[in-house]
Amino acid sequence: MVDLTESGAVSPGHGRHGQSSGSCKKTSKKSRTRRSKRGRRRRSKKNRNNKTPPPYLPPEAEEGNIEYKLKLVNPTQYRFEHLATQLKWRLQEGRGEAVYQIGVEDNGLLVGLTESDMKASLKTLKRMAEKVGADITLLREREVDYDLDRNTRKIAEVLVRKVPDDQQFLDLRVAVLGNVDSGKSTLLGVLTQGELDNGRGRARLNLFRHLHEIQTGRTSSISFEILGFNSKGEVVNYSESRTAEEICESSSKMITFIDLAGHHKYLKTTIFGLTSYCPDFAMLVVSANTGIAGTTREHLGLAMALKVPIFIVVSKVDLCSRGTVERTVRQLERVLKQPGCNKVPMVVSNPDDAVTAAQQFAQSACITPIFTLSSVSGESLDLLKVFLNILPPLSNSKEQEELMQQLTEFQVDEIYSVPDVGTVVGGTLYSGVCREGERLVVGPTDEGRFLRLKVGSIQRNRSACRVLRAGQAATLALGNFDRSLLRKGMVMVSPKMNPTICCQFEAAIVLLFHAKTFRRGSQVTVHVGNVRQTATVECLHGKDELRTGERAVVRFRFIKHPEYLRLGAKLLFREGVTKARRPHTLSEK
């Protein structure tokens, strides 16, 4: 507009002065040249003033496993040693994983590097990783082009992961939820076996534990499947390894899938899996051709009540049209955006989306990634693998160290009798460290006592392990200890703990749903961690009855035997179709 205004001011002047044509042409040509130069200068100045503002990332945090580096070009030996120590710290913070953003300043400004500087920086980062016993994987490169006067530069996002060492791999637990026949077990079979399904459920056969599950094709019990990733980010599953032990030895990161039942009559088993096995994340599987049906909403509500971060997989996209898939995705987006959920759905359609989703999902509880894939054709299956490979742990090394400093507490979730081994218990170590030969006490019994025992061998993910750390799941051999004295819901703790038990307890609850009213004398099934027992409502403090959506402090009494409960534990109870959760503290009496 500036140039057009100047041209318009000159043209009328030329007609008014009526100078000779020759003189007029010469003067006009000179003035046009001067005006053209001024116009170019003004356009350049205007472009500089109106250029796109540089993009930013959040400022670098001192804690955590994310590090910003502007460039790593030919550092001195002293500088290199400092950088390697810094990398070691970031790996420790991420429990064996770190993410480096190359070409980014500490304040988050995306500056970018030239191609030669980027190659040199990645070479230096690889040397640093080798020094601390790790590998690097380039996740993605992005162009930074916000200035017309400069060449296009790039930033790189690099995953650094420790090489597996003495079974100290990163282990994440993912609970698999969804309605019956949504394809949960089939999807897990494809991921862990490395072979696509034939469309008739062949991939799920290896996951079933009982004959009736094979006959009906429906999961009724809790099963565990593992998927590994090595230090280079490559998938390690049964297609490359014959045994679980080989997968553990080759993996730096392990995803343990907890396959839960989808049928409503097995709801108590599903709830037990969510409360007892302490999943880090939940994967809700929805069939593209049926949409939100059956127990889908119920499972979503359970995960949200227990505050388990959830991502969604829309399966069986090979069975329906693109329009049907999009309709199912829109239906999910509407449910997630409702006031009760307040989630931000994020549809993943390419590898870049998968990387972004994994990072934002762990940082913000409101982000809910949505994948659309097929276990038969393999469509978009790689996007889910990229997501799982990059997905960081929710707790950092400092929190785990604090738990490890506490006294030993192991939750008993499963009990077995193994020939030539004896009694074996499976569960999760909530706190402390457990070693072979350690002496613990287990209880409470029906009389409220704790019994002494000795831990024999330890197996983690079906392979031998000498030391078990807080947050890890394992099976412990107890030798000739009488199995009849054990039950699910017990704990094995250090004798120094002097554990206390209770027959009554109080909890601050919010009633999620009840068909009528909830009052004194009601009987409910209470789930607190690995504890599952019927309890009677003794009193509601300050209220006579409770309706859907209301809150109160309630006193419960176990009707069978005392239990060991932790103060502040999450509680969920049900009465038929009743579900509620404990949002605040738990006190014993």
What's a concise summary of this model?
The protein is α+β, with helices and mostly antiparallel strands and 589 residues long. Residues 1-33 and 40-52 have low confidence and may be disordered.
As for the number of domains, it is: 4
How many β strands by DSSP?
31
CATH class of the largest domain: Alpha Beta
Supply Rg: 31 Å
- How would you name the CATH homologous superfamily of the largest domain? P-loop containing nucleotide triphosphate hydrolases
Count the helices. How many? 13
Helix content: 25-40%
Q: Distance between the terminal alpha carbons, to the nearest Å?
A: 80 Å
CATH architecture of the largest domain: 3-Layer(aba) Sandwich
Average pLDDT, all residues: 84
Structural class computed from helices and strand pairing:
alpha+beta
Enumerate the spans where pLDDT stays under 50 for 5 or more consecutive residues: 1-33, 40-52
As an assembly, this protein is: single chain
CATH topology of the largest domain: Rossmann fold
Strand content: 25-35%
Biggest sheet statistics: 8 strands, mixed
Q: How are the strands of the largest sheet arranged?
A: 7-6-8-5-9-10-12-11
Estimate the global geometry from the Cα principal axes. Answer: globular
Family: Belongs to the TRAFAC class translation factor GTPase superfamily. Classic translation factor GTPase family. EF-Tu/EF-1A subfamily.
Keywords: GTP-binding, Nucleotide-binding
Organism: Mastacembelus armatus
Protein name: GTP binding protein 2b
